[in-house]
Design goal:
Organism: Geodermatophilus obscurus (strain ATCC 25078 / DSM 43160 / JCM 3152 / CCUG 61914 / KCC A-0152 / KCTC 9177 / NBRC 13315 / NRRL B-3577 / G-20)
Number of strands: 0
Protein name: O-antigen ligase-related domain-containing protein
Number of helices: 20
Helix content: 55-70%
Largest sheet: none
Order of helices and strands: HHHHHHHHHHHHHHHHHHHH
InterPro entries: O-antigen_ligase-rel_domated, WaaL-like
Distance between the termini: 56 Å
Radius of gyration: 25 Å
Membrane topology: Multi-pass membrane protein
Subcellular location: Membrane
Amino acid sequence: MGHRVAMRRRDAAWLVLTAVIATMLGVALVLQPLLGAAAVGLLVVAGWLQLCHRWPGLALTVIIAIVVFSSHVFALAHVAGVPSSLIRPMIGAKDLLAWTLLAVLALRTMQQKRQAWAVPLLVGAFLSLCAVVYVLFDSPAPLAVQLAAMRGASLPVLALGCVALLSRDERRRVAVASVYVVLAGAVYALVELAFPRSFVSETVGVGRYWVEVKDQPLFVDPVTDLPGNFFTSAGFPRLTGTFGDPLSAGEVLGSALVLAVAHRSALRYPHLVILPITAALLLTFTRNGWLLAAAGLTALAALRYGVGRTLLRVAAAVVALLLVTAVVRPLGDYIGKILSGEDASTLGHYSALEYSLQLFQSFPFFGYGWGTGGSAALNSFAEAVTAENAYVAVLTQTGWLVGTMLGILILGLGHQAVRGQPLAAVGATVLLVQAVTAFISENVLTFNAGFFPFLTAGLVAAADPVRELIERPFPLAAHGRSSPEGRSSPRTRPVGRWTPASPAGT
């Protein structure tokens, strides 16, 4: 009883303190706007640090929600009259939030376990190498372009570092919460896709946002007033919604689909969650997202049913996809052109890959410095090398020596993100898909498209193993000392220990 009274008094004290702070901030904003704004900023920073410390899973879910919804929010704010100079810095705020979370998690881990230095050391080594490239390699690109290049290159480290420092229970809660967040974005995107494109360009103001805030006027079609990749080569609109662009939408939806299937036992009405995400994923016409979902789901099926039954299910899925493409004509035309080699986007990716493979032979041992490679750098630096290849972008800037070292550090963080988890093989599969798609895309180095898929590798690895996959012990393993043989027969594995692709699962 006394404990409850003390808790009520403490809650009342916090309520009074919050009211006093809010009143003081209100007065400061009226009397001294600049000072009041600074006070509000400090209060927000203090609140975010407290959230990261006490509920890191919730803080990471907030970042995922920002990834899903911020593009539309910023576009609507710009249409409402908020100047570009205020919105542009807010786009990079999610990086600051994520790095703050990573720092808090690293401090927590090092305090709880004195030997848990692997992740902080790997992250620190990566950032140190980035700093070495910046200091020693005299880049001709502007400073803003160099910082943007470093931001993109460090994205896998940021995502893998955050998820590697979460406990398994925290990962499971983040996985389920993020699926619901993406589900909300998918449902809205499906509804928006049924609206006229003028709703997106005029009401939401996506075209103005890309031109005036993101400073990419050449990417916007003058006829539709929307970015060119918002449509297929045949002119059919691609699902985008609040995800920012169809490529980001496909990557996020594909990752969420893998998480939804892996953590379906923790979802309410899982089929009602999986179906909208699947439909939205298909309508993005984003092959990277399709590949991520297909590889992740195949790995999950192989662990649950074994290789033989998985092949039968894959065949059934292919038949179902063929039926869907027959019903949804734009989807059928798109896949048909890809398979026949007539799709313009496919031909472009093929040419870019061929060109990038030629470039691999001409990279120097040391790079040209940050900002000299990548399509994002090309917007501000005319001499930047671009080939729609994330490896080309990084090697151009860092060279073979530093680039290889950076890759080894990322592999180490990937190992830390999935090691010791029940479905580590599925997490490794997700990372492998990211590594493969990086040959034909630079999306893995953009926050909206790359952060969540890298997180998915660690989140899906923490899912519960399937109960059917229990390795049955050999007959002698059950005899023990009371067996007719009169001697103990050691078990080959502990009873009840889960092992993937066991005979019992097939």
